[in-house]
Amino acid sequence: MLAWIIRIVGGLALLIVIGAGALAVMTLEFGERPASSLKPFEITGDIKFVEANGIRFAYIEEGQGPLVLLFHGYPETARSWKVVQQRLAQSGYRAVAPYMRGYPPTALAADGDYTTGALARDVLGLIDAFGAQSATVVGHDWGAAAVYAAAAKEPTKIDRLVALAIPHPRGVLGDPTVFLRAPHFLYYQLPIAERLVWSRDFVHIESIYRQWAPGYRAPPEVLNHIKATLRAPGATAGVLGYYWSLFKRDPAEMERSAASEIAIPTLIIAGADDGAVGLERYEKARAAFTGDYRFVALKGVGHFPQLEAAEKTADEIVALLQSAQ
Question: The domain 2-323: what is its CATH number?
């Protein structure tokens, strides 16, 4: 079985290499990296800092009350939660959106560790750093991977779990066909990956939004926030570090992750038109949830529900929080 998977992945990887080579000819900038794509991150007045799990995290905070942590994914920043965060604050919650490790102005991982194990420790460390015994955790994309891992590692610290656009590991592990819809996991392993991200003023990031959310056109302010983060020195390596770490994980650890069960009240939100993840993945992962569980597939929405359908996403999260009171 393992040999079959290796052959399949090898074949897919070869196709990706060929495709990436063609892409390089068409879209990459060669020579020195343009100064316009490399600038220090400007710290605005609403950004605060806290130490957790050996990382200096930047974060944006709104509201007072029970702690709700909002973890973004790729390619995003903490500001992707703006509407949801405001709704949570208005509903009586302390809504905190950190910039994930490797996303300036949060520090890069000094040891280069961007595995889900490290992300889980970040989630749990931030709960402690904000002085809470437990919290509701909300994650999108890599943020979803982080909250799944945290819930599996230390469930007593997680009150409720919300995951957007990424299924539990049980929905993808051991199935190489996942790369057919998400080939970036493979082509980001290539030496040209950083250049691909920053070339032509990060046009690749814009293409990601078009591919993963075909019915959504990211407004300039959304793309500008992302580009400002990626222009910071070391940022492209930081965000790609998540993908580089994926193939460095211990296979036994990955199997344990897929085998884990979550009894915490859980809400999963997916876009029915997600260009990167099919809805069948969530059904495959359903058995991993043994407690209260709700799955919502938003019609006409792609990979970024908190941006594409922010009010509906906020409604669902607030309803979960209030139902548990």
Answer: 3.40.50.1820
